[in-house]
Amino acid sequence: MEETAKAAKQQFNVRPNAQAISAAERATLLEDPGFGRVFTDHMVVIKYSDDRGWYDAEVTARAPLSIDPACSVLHYAQEIFEGMKAYRTQDGGAVLFRPDANARRFRQSAERLAMPLIPEELFLEAVRQIVSIDRDWVPSGEGALYLRPFMFGSEVMLGVRPSSEYLFLVIASPAGNYFKGGKDAVTIWVSNDYTRAAPGGTGAAKCGGNYAAGLLPQAQAVANGCDQVVFLDAVERRWVDELGGMNLFFVFDDGSINTPPLGTILPGITRDSLLTIARDRGIKVSESPYAIDQWRADAESGRLRETFACGTAAVITPVGEVRSVDGNFKIGDGGAGPVAKELRKTLTDIQRGNAPDPHGWVQKAY
To answer: Which has the closest alpha carbon to 346: 285, 274, 279, 284?
Structure first.
């Protein structure tokens, strides 16, 4: 307990980037940053070792890392990350949305991958530090500053065991639309050959290996003219799981909403927020298994009115069509439905401080 408190209160050594991008060049980059292509001037780095705990917290110029070829993460993939955003407010400041939830999930991911648990307050302070020093990078309008805290095993060794040394970093990237062209609705491909996660696996952890396993089926989705891949459960190959990087919701003709239950899927913070908002509005919400055959039948009968995906990067993205080797089917009229539109507006208004925040989700970034 004493060591945890000490780590949480440690001071950050701040070394501003002497070669930061000019204001004019930054303004040009912020006009159309896309997603994950443009990066800010700084990064946070905190070291860990079994004998010293967390130490040497610093904010420094964003630069390449120098690691040994035998660095454990390169061989055993001991790595986790988070995705979160800072939003520009009308008064020119910036806020974070539920950063404490990201901190908790990061610790849960670390526990699953046998990594050290970073104190939540240290995680949050690291995030606040980078938003503060790179505050001019937070876009106005509909954009946001995407924050990527991550940690990996950095010990130089080839033994199959948890690393005894780690690096925790936070980098930042101004972000616009996740999908190119700002699509009204996306088309998704059902993967019959591959699964994302199995019971007892790492599906509920936010680790890079989960995403690496989804790259081939994602490529198959693109080859079939789709934007994303959706996975089925690993046991029966029957139940809808999640997309390669987003949770799914289904809206029915009686106004009710369903989303697949947690277990092998990522406990999305956007997912949890939407469930809360829907319940606040008196909408009947369930978290229960939903079969791919039932999805098709409900779409064809009209019982299913909307399907949408959600996540930090894309917020809410309507699904217009589902394709598979068994044939294709359309959701509603193939566009964005009223429930998805309204939930998106409510969520984004709260995130940007433009609507009441009854659950205390929004925090000042600096």
So the answer is: 274
Facing residues of 86 across strands? 96, 145
What residue ranges do the domains of the chain occupy? Answer: 2-175, 186-351
pLDDT band at 80 (very low <50, low <70, confident <90, very high): very high
CATH 3.30.470.10 for domain 2-175, yes or no, is yes
In angstroms, the CA 305 to CA 288 distance is 18
Tell me whether strands 247-252 and 257-259 are parallel, antiparallel or unpaired: antiparallel
Which residues, in sequence order, are CB contacts of 330 under 8 Å at separation 6+?
Answer: 299, 320, 321, 322
Note the CATH architecture for domain 186-351: Alpha-Beta Barrel (3.20)
Mean pLDDT of the chain: 95
Percentage with pLDDT > 70 across the chain = 96
Tell me what pLDDT residue 4 has: 58
Tokens encoding 217: 């089926």
Query: Is the dihedral angle over the CA atoms 128, 89, 279, 332 positive or is it negative?
Result: negative
Tell me which H or E stretch contains 272.
Answer: helix 269-280
Q: Which residues contact 182 (CB under 8 A, 6 or more apart)?
A: none
> Whole-structure pTM over 0.90, yes or no?
yes
pLDDT at position 256 over 70: yes
The separation between CA 55 and the C-alpha centre of its own chain, rounded to angstroms, equals 27
Tens-place pLDDT, residues 266-296: 999 999 999 999 999 999 999 999 999 999 9
Going by the DSSP 8-state scheme, the letter that residue 327 receives in this structure is -
Letter for the amino acid at 78?
A: Q
Q: What share of the chain is helix, strand, coil (3-state, %, to 5)?
A: 30, 30, 45
Per-residue pLDDT band for 6 (boundaries 50, 70, 90) equals low
Burial class (CB in 10 A: 0-12, 13-18, 19+), 8: middle
Confidence of residue 180 (pLDDT cuts 50, 70, 90): low
Cα gap 110→205, rounded to integer Å: 8
Strand partners, 153: 166
| CA gap 107, 82 in Å, rounded | 10
